[in-house]
TrEMBL record:
Subcellular location: Cytoplasm
Taxonomic placement: Bacteria, Bacillati, Actinomycetota, Actinomycetes, Propionibacteriales
Quaternary data: Homodecamer; pentamer of dimers.
Pathway(s) the chain acts in: Cofactor biosynthesis; (R)-pantothenate biosynthesis; (R)-pantoate from 3-methyl-2-oxobutanoate: step 1/2
Protein name as it appears in the record: 3-methyl-2-oxobutanoate hydroxymethyltransferase
Encoding gene per record: panB
Length: 283
């Protein structure tokens, strides 16, 4: 049975935690599906962890659509949410609807996720919801516009940003988002609004909420370098990758690989014909 917005709402009502993880290609989506997560997010964090860009703002529409379509092929039952890339919804409500429609038609998305909760962003949420596409809102730290927030910094630690966070939480719900992701906000500030939310709140660096999301490559230990303090790693795949490739390199260099079982066998007449050809050409 596929996960639906109704199922997610009923999980919230029943107090069951909603589990979300990112995926960016076929194998990472398959892994998420096999693990039985409820929601898969094709995050624009793929810009960083898969494509190697410095910021999420750099990823293109085509790159996001390619990652999203691959993730869809890898997950049939989880609810698939796609981040819309920076620049693809900023111009107008019409542009935002066109972008959301492309994720549904070309990638098979179940919903799109939009960063921000200022009045202009609320208009975009309303327009997409009016077009019949479910929207996940994203408030708190919004990496696409982190420059305007003063960098990759937690939000809601000052009176001004805490008030803005609360206003935006109520506003995105009112605008029609069926779910909201909260990133990098102090847990006690999040707790204050949690009981007033009719829609599921998914946290990342936001303490306990109705569910959690993490970047798959962070939790599996694939991401290199410093990570946000809210990340917990459950595996060290980076080491496993390097060990596996290192063992292969050692065996190639020592002649252990390829062994007999990795080689094709010829028929006697094929070997004979090849030998005759070699004799003729080398004489
Ligand atoms: N791999 C990956 N995982 C993520 O979770 C992630 C990305 N990429 N890319 C986009 C954003 C960036 N993320 C971040 C980064 C830093 C903080 C953070 O806690 N910053 C410090 C300040 C650090 C500074 O000033 O340099 C803070 O205390 O606010 C939070 C979220 C989360 N997102
Ligand atoms: C961290 C989550 C919420 C996200 O937006 C992403 O992975 O791009
Ligand atoms: Mg994102």
């Amino acid at each position: 049975m596929s996960v639906t917005t109704a199922k997610l709402a009923s999980m919230k009502a029943a107090g069951e935690q909603i589990v979300m993880v990112t995926a960016y290609d076929f194998p990472s989506a398959r892994a998420a599906e096999k693990a039985g997560v409820d929601m898969v997010l094709v995050g624009d964090s793929g810009a960083n962890v898969v494509l190697g860009y410095d910021t999420t703002a750099e990823v293109s529409m085509d790159e996001m659509l390619t990652m999203a379509a691959a993730a869809r092929r890898g997950t049939k039952t989880a609810f698939l949410v796609c981040d819309v890339p920076f620049g693809s919804t900023e111009v107008s409500d019409e542009q935002a609807v066109e972008t959301a429609v492309r994720f549904v038609k070309e990638a098979g998305a179940d919903a799109v996720k939009l960063e921000g909760g200022n009045p202009r962003r609320l208009s975009r949420i309303r327009a997409i919801v009016d077009a019949g596409i479910p929207v996940v809102a994203h408030v708190g730290l919004t990496p696409q516009t982190a420059v305007a927030l003063g960098g990759m910094r937690a939000q809601g630690r000052t009176a001004e940003t805490a008030s803005r966070f609360v206003r935006e939480m109520f506003a995105v719900q009112e605008a029609g988002a069926f779910c909201v992701v909260v990133e990098a906000v102090p847990a006690d500030v999040v707790q204050l609004v949690l009981e007033h939310m009719q829609i599921p709140v998914i946290g990342i660096g936001a303490g306990a909420a109705h569910g959690q999301v993490l970047v798959q490559h962070d939790l599996l230990g694939i991401t290199e370098g410093p990570m946000a303090s809210f990340v917990k790693s459950y595996a060290r795949l980076n080491e496993a990758f390097a060990e596996g490739i290192g063992a292969y390199a050692d065996e190639v260099r020592s002649g252990v690989f390829p062994a007999g079982e990795h080689c094709y066998k010829s028929k006697p007449e094929a070997l004979e014909a090849a030998r005759a050809e070699v004799n003729q050409l080398s004489s």
